[in-house]
Amino acid sequence: MNFRVCNLSLIDVMEILLSRSKQYGNENKTNGQWMKKTILFFLLIFLFIMRVASQSEKSILEVKGCVIDIIEVKYGATVFPQGGSMLKYGISTPKCILGKESALSIMDMDGPYQVRSSQKCSILAAVDHLDVDSREGWIPTGEKIVIASTGIQLNYYLYQYDYITPGEWVNVPSPSEKGTTTIIYGDKITVSEVMQPPGTVIAKVAHLKKESVTNPAILVLPNGDYLVACSGVFVKSGEKSGVTYFCSKDKGKTWKVLSENNGYISFYNLFMHDDVLYSMGTEGWGGNSRNVIIRRSDDGGISWTFPRDSLSEGVIKCGKFSTAPVPVVIYNGRIWRAMETGVKGEVPRAFVMSAPIDSNLMKAESWVSTNGIAFNSEWFDKKLVVKQWVEGNVVIAPNGKLVDVIRVDNWTNGNMAAILTVEDSNTLVFNPKEDIINFPGGGKKFTIRYDTISGKYWAMTNPVFEQDKKKKHSGIYKKGVPCGLIRNNLALICSSDLRHWEIKDTLIISDNPFFHGFQYADWQFDGKDIVAVLRTAFDEERGLPKRQHDANFLTFMRLCNFRTDKIPTIKINSINNKNQN
Question: Based on the domain organization, do 332 and 242 belong to the same domain?
Answer without folding.
Answer: yes
